[in-house]
Amino acid sequence: MIAFDNISASYDGVHQAVADVSFTIDKPAIIGIIGPNGAGKSTFIKSALNLIEGSGTTTVDGQSLQKRKKEVAYVEQKSDIDYTFPITVGECVSLGLYPKKRFFQRITKEDWHKVDHALELVQMKDFKDRQIGELSGGQFQRILIARTFVQDATFIFLDEPFVGIDATSEQIIMELLNGFKKEGKEIFIVHHDLSKVERYFDELVILNKELIAQGPTDEVFTKTNLKQAFGDTIFVGGGQSND
Ligand SMILES: Nc1ncnc2c1ncn2[C@@H]1O[C@H](COP(=O)(O)OP(=O)(O)OP(=O)(O)O)[C@@H](O)[C@H]1O
């Protein structure tokens, strides 16, 4: 169970980018975080995970995030990642091992088997010795997911993982994430394609600086909630009216 309590953040100390967002997810699920551009979706995650300054608390099974941080994985937006860093695909995935290792502890043979297994899962084993800079966007995203698998994180946060990637990679990733859910994980995905919301997410968080709605997708993916978050101009093929 992960609980967010009054998560807030401001970049300039005057305007709130995220204001008092509270909710709890208490069972394995794939959770979509949606809202218009600039709604504070990325900021919410960064503040909740203490990656930027903010206020509020995140607890895991009632314990502080600090105590449970090894169980949390975060994959930032692609635009924030330096692709030119000289590192191979295998090495990049192996970085997922480090949160659970002590400083200077070596990577064992068994660890490399774990890396190989993760690469197999994302169908990227043949790319193990390639430089990450040589990958397509979709392939790279698969590598980042493999890294969270190696870390064996229970709580996975993915910021816009499907932006600019091919349909095959998107499908591979979604199948994998559904498998993760069956293993008991809670996966949060910032997402902007509203047409896939009902297919992809069990639970939904609708944000526009404040929390507009949160709950099972079939209950909260409504025209009223979407209008409140996105304004009157929103057009969505799905979504039931709860007027
Ligand atoms: N590093 C930063 N410095 C200053 N302001 C920022 C910074 N990052 C985000 N903001 C501002 O905070 C607000 C929320 O941004 P955020 O990136 O969290 O929104 P988002 O919902 O993830 O947006 P998008 O869908 O466009 O990615 C926006 O007004 C944005 O301009």
Automatic annotation (TrEMBL):
Keyword DNA-binding listed: no
Every ABC transporter domain range: 2-234
Keyword hit for Protein biosynthesis: no
Pfam family, one: ABC_tran
GO MF annotation: an example: ATP binding
InterPro entries, per the entry: AAA+_ATPase (IPR003593), ABC_transporter-like_ATP-bd (IPR003439), ABC_transporter-like_CS (IPR017871), Metal_Ion_Import_ABC (IPR050153), P-loop_NTPase (IPR027417)
Keywords: ATP-binding, Nucleotide-binding, Transport
Similarity field: Belongs to the ABC transporter superfamily.
Listed name of the protein: Metal ABC transporter ATP-binding protein
Organism (species): Tetragenococcus solitarius
